[in-house]
Design a protein that fits this description.
Radius of gyration: 22 Å
Number of helices: 14
Number of strands: 5
Structural class: mainly alpha
Shape: globular
Distance between the termini: 78 Å
Largest sheet: 3 strands, antiparallel
Order of helices and strands: HHHHHHHEEEHEEHHHHHH
Strand order of the largest sheet: 1-2-3
């Protein structure tokens, strides 16, 4: 049994979990964001959302406070309120990560109970529209955005890689001549991702003369305390975070996601998520007749069953199928 973490207490417990539980580097960012959200709720406060979340410092409290008998009831109310504001997939992912961390803290002897007992996962009906239509992808490339975003989005789509994997790329991980890069995949394995000419044409401009350090950087200098591995020694800027990358993509795709909406209402609507670029790439591959072994290699999934969500033809593919079999259209031809 280890002693309870001292110093920052709750924040220290999170960092000890991320390092001690062997969480892969590519997953640690998402875990840290989820545990920061739950840190607010475990302290009995609602987690900030939207712009208020940027720069908000999580509360610091003794990790032993998680055993407060009154916490489960308060936590259930806070979790229910958050679930009403967020999509079910996000809520369920955050709950799962929080429970993993709590279980690990219990095994260290830092806490005894689990205040999330009684909080149920939210039903998440399957979303049949996750793959963007090809005209939506084309419209995405026409958006007036910064070079960093153009390169990041293009790489996600062409490689069908996970966003957190690509954000962990360093300049020295790239093999531009082969149009591929070495990433740390989900589970910690070292694997390759491959891209096409669109990404290859943008990368030299993005990298400029840098020879090492994070590939995708923030616009500002890294704040004090940023891990050295996440700072570019040449520009002093930090690695772009998943949360910020997601915010930028969502903000820039609101009109694409809601083409009939009034510009006055667009601030209240949601745009696309970064994962939809990976989903779209694999779906479009499947629609184009890519073989199952190649889809497995592209997605880096271990089982064919995992491909089912991507192999469903999209709306454009179904429309073409129906049109090609329209008897009246054949007679006109």
């Amino acid at each position: 049994m280890q002693s309870r973490p001292d110093g920052k207490r709750s924040t220290a417990a999170v960092e000890r979990y991320l390092t001690g539980a062997g969480i892969a580097k590519s997953s640690a960012r998402v875990y840290r964001i989820s545990l920061t959200t739950w840190g607010w709720m475990l302290a009995g406060e609602p987690a900030p959302t939207g712009p208020a979340r940027r720069g908000a410092k999580p509360p610091v409290f003794p990790v032993a406070a998680i055993d407060d008998p009154a916490l489960p009831e308060v936590l259930a109310e806070l979790a229910a309120a958050r679930a009403d504001e967020m999509d079910a997939d996000t809520v369920n992912r955050e709950l799962s990560i929080a429970r993993k961390a709590i279980g690990w803290w219990q095994r260290q002897g830092w806490i005894e109970g689990d205040p999330t007992i009684g909080i149920e996962r939210r039903p998440a009906p399957p979303d049949r529209t996750k793959a963007l239509a090809e005209n939506q992808i084309a419209a995405l490339w026409r958006l007036d955005v910064a070079l960093r975003e153009k390169t990041f989005w293009k790489m996600l789509y062409e490689s069908a890689a996970r966003a957190d994997e690509v954000l962990c790329l360093n300049v020295e991980d790239l093999h531009p001549q082969d149009k591929r890069g070495r990433i740390t995949a989900k589970g910690g394995a070292t694997e390759w991702i491959h891209w096409q000419s669109g990404t290859a044409q943008l990368l030299p401009r993005l990298i400029a003369r840098r020879t090492r350090g994070p590939l995708f950087l923030t616009d500002r200098k890294a704040p004090a305390g940023t891990p050295t591995l996440d700072v570019c020694s040449e520009t002093c800027r930090a690695r772009l975070s998943y949360r910020r990358a997601e915010e930028i993509f969502e903000e820039n795709t609101r009109l694409l996601a809601n083409p009939l909406a009034s510009p006055d209402d667009i601030e209240d609507l949601d745009g696309f998520t970064l994962h939809r670029l990976r989903h779209s790439a694999l779906t479009h591959d499947a629609e184009g007749g890519t073989s199952t072994p190649m889809l497995l290699a592209r997605s880096r999934h271990a089982s064919v069953r995992s491909l089912e969500r991507y192999a469903r033809p999209g709306v454009d593919a179904v429309a073409r199928h129906v049109a090609e079999r329209d008897p009246a259209a054949r007679r006109r031809t």
